[in-house]
Design goal:
The complex is a heterodimer of chains A (about 425) and B (about 350). Chain A is built from 17 helices and 4 strands. Chain A has helices at about 15-55, 85-90, 90-105, 110, 115-125, 145-150, 155-165, 175-180, 195-225, 230-245, 245-260, 270-290, 295-305, 310-335, 340-345, 365-375, 380-410, and strands at about 60-70, 135-140, 170-175, 350. Classes of the chains: A mainly alpha (about 425), B alpha/beta (about 350). Chains A and B meet through helix 2, helix 9 and strand 4 of A and helix 1, helix 2, strand 2 and helix 11 of B. Strand 4 (about 350) of chain A pairs antiparallel with strand 2 of chain B.
Chain lengths: ~425, ~350
């Protein structure tokens, strides 16, 4: 039997075609992958650019330097007896209107924010002696004027902007109030501090509840639980729980925490408890994976030199698994931070102008605040909504950054 | 084990702590130092404006909490009982229904004060670039009903199919969802009026109320009527992108967006401040707040909050600046008297 083995003729027509085909498939796959990356990056860029374009304006405010001649104004206040009550009774809104009319002309009402008098009140409070002289006080401009000064407004307001700029009394600057004030009805006066504080308190409750329970569950299931169909059922249930839509947790919170336990409505406590239910399965899953990745040799070594199982878990396994658990926790918390739906059910979709003092006070959170502002009538709220979104994104970015930092700092490789 | 026990102890104590919080702040015998209002998203901007003025005028008061749940959802919460854990005020963009009043009574909410705070218009609008439709309740009903006059599914595709005087533009209406008080107003003020142009329907109402409701107020679901969520700003944006569509929303949104939208007249009446205020515009509807009399003593500042409403609902008041339409003078006078005397609502007048 003499079999003639033909060596592969790489130069033949058929072989060349096959090789060309393989290279083409490779190129197509690379191109598809690149296309997917570029597409998702461009969506992200589009989101960020539009948000920044709309939202950065929301951090600024147009102000008019109003010259107030206090002795000549119809204000009846004794500089020596300035109390909150005296200021409330002095009819400052009316006085501000009259003063503005003499300085800015008949249309002053349309130029000044309806809450401009608050700036004057605060100026008097800070220095009562101001009442005996003429002072220049920066007061917020109306929404219409604000929009015209910053972007596109109505033609009349554009004309007013030109006129006031010529007089040199119009200025646009960073609006500190946006970071320190709370919800309001006038877009020139609103701020996000109330919602931000509400978010912080809610997250605190969520962390305190979900972290210990989640880690304890993960430890027990990984280290102690016998492998039988009971633990299988529990495992499947936890995985399912992590995928349950958040609105269902909201309904659960409503029926258990509010209707059954009679906890206070709209409070950060109930919000945090509801979100803790949602975050716990995420922590359990991340925790189990982190514990699983601790090599068995470490457990064996510890047991071999006489450590008890609890000592093994708490002195060796947990410290090594902690970076992974923390990363999972922070990602779960970041998801909870952006959650709106369950909080609507428990009454956090509300107008709350006083920042919460504690976890049982009525509070709202950042995403709900964004939701509320997006539904406001006044056009000035459009940029405030975008600005609030930027704050939320910055908060999320900080949390995710912390997760990456913790992972890199404590991660051990074997 | 120690650490684990500690961990468990912390968890348990946190949980029991929250249970304590329950007794101290949510318990029935306790009181609140903040006013709580729930209800209509249409009344929400006006209630928040009054809340703000109330705080500014009364130094040291905590700001009232206004929740926007929709009229129906608000009534449910309001009627759940008397006590600190239940709201003091329900905002409504329609009158309380008889069934809701009975629900309230069943839960011990007996003395309810009804105050009309103003008027809102259910505005029909289109983009500035739109075709300039002129509608009547009858046309709107025939264009939007699922089953016009009970004669089978609605087949009208264009406005011309409904009324030959209108252009041949595909029917496309953006409006509120069925949970909204605005949708109730659309059904009651426009659809039922149009439906009743047929004598047979009036007869049907006598015979079977349920069948009448289904025929006259059910809106078609084949995509001609687009349910746009509770967000009226979204409808405004959609109209800008679809010049041939018609939007249905609160009058204040039309006022605020006059530069991009124009009004669609109903029965030849334009939605303006005057026509809505006098009730001449067919889409005008009253706005109410309902207050529990039993809470007047227990909740500090409640009377002051009602007074702040009364002080600002005049034609040149703060509420009209926010887009509300002031009620006619005699209604305002009557409402002001109710605020003063806290006259209790007579449930037998409700429908």
């Amino acid at each position: 039997m003499t079999a003639v083995r033909n060596p592969t003729d790489w130069k033949s027509e058929a072989m060349r075609k096959r090789i060309a085909g393989r290279y083409a498939a490779e190129r197509r796959f690379k191109f598809a992958g690149l296309f997917a990356v570029v597409l998702s990056a461009s969506f992200l860029a589009f989101l960020l650019v539009t948000m920044m374009g709309n939202g950065l304006r929301g951090f600024t405010r147009t102000e008019i330097a109003l010259k107030v001649d206090f002795p000549a104004s119809p204000l009846l206040l004794d500089p020596k007896a300035i109390t909150d009550e005296a200021l409330a009774n002095a009819n400052l809104p009316m006085v501000t209107g009259t003063v503005a009319k003499t300085v800015l002309g008949e249309k002053a009402d349309d130029l000044l924010s309806p809450t401009a008098w608050i700036s004057i009140r605060d100026a008097i409070k800070a220095d009562p002696m101001i009442l005996s002289r003429t002072a220049t006080i920066s007061v917020p401009a109306s929404t219409g004027l604000d929009l015209a000064a910053k972007s596109k407004g109505s033609p009349e307001m554009e004309a007013e902007v030109a006129r006031l700029k010529q007089q040199g009394i119009l200025s646009t600057g960073f609006n500190m109030g946006f970071l320190t004030a709370s919800d309001g009805t006038d877009p020139t006066q609103v701020g996000i501090w109330g919602a931000f504080k509400g978010s912080l308190l809610t997250m605190l409750v969520t962390l305190i509840l979900s972290f210990p329970v989640g880690v304890a569950t993960a430890l027990y299931l990984e280290e102690y639980a016998a492998k039988n169909w009971w633990t299988d059922i529990i495992e499947v249930s936890i995985n399912n729980l992590a995928a349950v839509p958040s609105i269902i947790f909201g309904l659960l919170g409503l029926s258990i925490f509010l209707n059954l336990a009679h906890l206070p409505r709209s409070a950060a406590l109930v919000g945090g408890m509801t979100l803790a239910l949602m975050t716990m399965p995420v922590i359990v899953i991340a925790g189990r994976n982190a514990i699983k990745s601790v090599p068995p040799s470490i457990r064996d070594a510890a047991l071999g030199i006489g450590a008890s199982p609890v000592q093994v878990v708490f002195q060796h396994v947990l410290p090594l698994a902690l970076p992974g658990i923390l990363t999972g926790t922070i990602i779960g918390m970041a998801r909870a931070l952006g959650e709106t739906a369950p909080l609507l059910m428990i009454g956090m979709r509300a107008f709350i102008a006083t920042p919460p003092g504690g976890i049982t006070d009525p509070a709202t959170v950042l995403p709900v605040q964004i939701f509320l502002w997006s539904d406001e009538v006044s056009k000035g709220f459009v940029e405030k909504t975008s600005a609030a979104i930027i704050v939320l994104l910055a908060f999320l970015l900080a949390m995710n950054g912390l997760a990456i930092y913790l992972r890199n700092k404590f991660e051990t490789r074997w | 084990m120690k650490t684990f026990a500690l961990l468990a102890a912390t968890t348990v104590s946190v949980l029991s702590l929250s249970a304590c919080g329950d007794q101290s702040s949510g318990g029935a015998g306790q009181t609140r130092d903040q006013i709580r209002a729930v209800g209509s998203s249409t009344v929400y901007p006006f209630a928040t404006a009054v809340a703000e003025l109330f705080v500014q005028g009364n130094a040291g008061m905590k700001s009232p909490i206004i929740e926007s749940t929709g009229t129906g959802g608000g009534m449910k919460l309001f009627c759940a009982g008397v006590g600190a854990q239940y709201p003091d005020i329900a905002d409504a963009s329609r009158r309380m229904k008889k069934a809701e009043y009975e629900q309230c009574a069943a839960n011990g909410v007996k003395d309810i004060v009804e105050i009309q705070i103003g008027v809102d218009g259910l505005a029909f609008a289109e983009s500035n670039k739109g075709p300039g439709l002129k509608l009547t309740p009858k046309i709107v009903y025939e264009a939007l009903a699922a089953n016009p006059y009970g004669k089978g599914p609605n087949k009208a595709q264009t406005w011309k199919d409904v009324d030959p005087s209108l252009p041949a533009i595909a029917i496309s209406v953006f409006g509120p969802p069925s949970t909204s008080g605005t949708r109730d107003s659309l059904a009651e003020l426009i659809l039922e009026k149009g439906c009743q142009s047929d004598e047979a329907m009036k007869a049907l109402k006598e015979k079977s109320e349920d069948e009448y409701k289904a025929t006259c107020t059910r809106v078609r679901e084949d995509g001609k009527y687009v349910d746009s969520g509770e967000n009226d700003n979204l409808i405004v944006q959609k109209l800008g992108a679809n010049p041939n569509a018609v939007g249905v929303f609160g009058f204040s949104f039309l006022e605020e967006n006059k530069d991009t939208l124009k009004d669609v007249s109903i029965n030849g009446v334009e939605a303006t401040y005057e026509t809505v205020s006098t009730g001449q515009y067919p889409g005008a509807r009253p706005l109410y707040i309902y207050v529990k009399k039993a809470h007047m003593q227990a909740i500090p500042g409640l009377q002051g909050f009602l007074n702040a409403f009364a002080a600002n609902w005049n034609p040149d008041g703060a509420l009209t600046k926010r887009g509300m339409v002031a009620a006619p003078e005699d209604v305002r006078k009557k409402s002001a008297e109710i605020v003063k005397a806290l006259t209790v609502l007579d449930g037998s007048q409700l429908k």
